[in-house]
């Protein structure tokens, strides 16, 4: 497969200066993202959302242990700022993971430009359409290998795998079950713990 030669971005292909300035000026108590050149600002997540993210982070700690212990092999980061694509799109997923075989050392930067291998978005009424729509399309464009949507209200996790055709729904896991979810099949995750408050 032949790669297209790199080309210089034109000014109209970058985020507008006023959008970048507004992004930088968003107060700390809010989450700012630039998606398709537009600023999106939302409040910090509610407790149910944050709790599901926190429990899932703890559930996956075996994949990102402090020592090189099995199963290991990942860097998993809570709410990283990602700058993806040429414009760039500036996204803050709830969780993202990079395989250490591809990224042996995470750069110590405020915003990461390396595409993750896995992204998890915890859904809430405030972000539902953006996460499922625009952000999903960006993750697909940037070739994020796995995408999860965790929905605390519906008590469900949707797991998607990237194929040549786009994202394929692997399965929807509902309720208080223990399951092995791609790409973390080495352990069972207690999904019921994500819904408890």
UniProtKB/TrEMBL annotation:
Residues 23-190 form the Putative restriction endonuclease domain. It comes from the Bacteria. GO terms for molecular function: endonuclease activity. SUPFAM superfamilies: Restriction endonuclease-like. Pfam families: Uma2. Keywords: Endonuclease, Hydrolase, Nuclease. This is Uma2 family endonuclease.
